[in-house]
Amino acid sequence: MDDDYEFFMDLSAKLSTHKFLLGQLYAQIFIADPESMKTLPESLIDAAKFKSHPAQVTDDEQRIELQARIVQQLGAFFADVENRVIQARDR
User: For 1-91, where are the alpha helices, taking DSSP H only?
Assistant: First the structure.
């Protein structure tokens, strides 16, 4: 049980770190080029809808579910980044 806990805590920390760093990077891009805040997330979400593939071979139902989850995560990520950019501008 402790091994599972450690594994998932490490995995959570890694994912949180990556999300934080990517958020910072995209925020800087969006601050430098405000128009990209509209176009870049849309193009990445569209690409994820049609071009993302699971790491393992799965059936069509699992592939569609994975793509939907990726799109959901990307939407939430970019909404969070956009909120941070707006808050930074309002300061």
Answer: 2-32, 36-51, 60-90
Fill in the amino acid letter for 44: L
Q: How far is the CA of 73 from the CAs of 4, 5, 39, 46, 86, in angstroms? A: 24, 24, 17, 13, 20
Q: Residue 1's pLDDT band (boundaries 50, 70, 90)?
A: low
Determine the length of the chain.
Answer: 91
What is the CB neighbour count within 10 angstroms for residue 37? 19
- Give the closest residue to 48 by CA, choosing from 36, 30, 34, 63: 63
